[in-house]
Amino acid sequence: MLGEQTGLGAAQIHVRRLAPDGPNWTRDDGRTVYPASLIKLPLATAAAAAIAAGRLDWETAVTVQARNLTLNDAPSPCVAGYRSTVRELATLMLQRSDNVATNQLYDLLGRDRATADVQALGYPEIVFRRKLSGALPLIDDPDATGRNVFPAAAAARLLTAIAERRVPHADVLLNILSTSWWDVKLSRGLEPADRFAHKTGDTDEVAHDAGILTLPGGARWVVVVYTQLASSDEADARFGEFMRALRPFLLAA
User: Fold this and answer.
1) Farthest CA pair distance, the chain
2) Do 34-148 and 1-33+151-253 have the same topology in CATH?
3) pLDDT tens column, 114-153
4) Which of 122, 141, 173, 224 stands 20 to 30 A from 195 (CA)?
């Protein structure tokens, strides 16, 4: 199996062709694996659903609150008192994996309402339970009820729905995903003409990458890889090796 051959271990992997009756390959034993920053993908979808329902607008003004501050791995304008919009927060969250923007959207959307909105779209397994922390100690979150839930299989289904424009404001979400700053995992195994709209997720316990890959000639694939590797440069390199090994099969399919 490619996962073992490239050092990803017992990874949960979903690969599916975005075409009628397109081929797909899945290796997923159903283990509960923490989604890390991949939870930001359904949270952005929940924001889009709230906008489609008329409860918000992309340009709704939002002020960043001090209670949501935590470490980010990339430069962020999100300091206490910063005036932003739903669109900017969603962009920072998906593009830079901004934790403060994510936590502010948690407050704006409400985790119970956001959970209900994505479940109403057909994803009953997705649950928003706690805000994100960029480092220890964890952010003070009195409303936390456990760990967030976003299985690899749900990620594959949601990305397919976004690619096929079957969720609210899918074009907006797809455009943001295509601007990811973190092209350090599966992207390492791609060629310059490939296009990968994706989101990564990392902690000391897991490393993930999931997105929509467009190859030269127009063939599109959803590729989701959840691992229980600690985030590291070595783990990132293994993702690249996996994609380099997988890509010829995708081109030939």
Assistant:
1) 52
2) yes
3) 999 999 999 999 999 999 999 989 999 999 999 999 999 9
4) 122
In whole angstroms, how far apart are CA 24 and each of 1, 12, 38, 191, 249?
A: 15, 14, 21, 22, 11
Using DSSP's 3-state secondary structure scheme, residue 158 falls into helix
- The CATH classification of domain 1-33+151-253, taken from the options 3.40.710.10, 3.60.21.10, 3.40.50.150, 3.40.50.10490: 3.40.710.10
Domain 34-148 in CATH 3.40.710.10? The answer is yes
Name the one residue in this structure whose structure tokens are 């969720």: 167
Neighbours of 24 (CB within 10 A): 15
Q: Which two tokens stand for residue 224?
A: 């989701």
Per-residue pLDDT, averaged over 183-207, amounts to 97
**This model's pTM is above 0.90:** yes
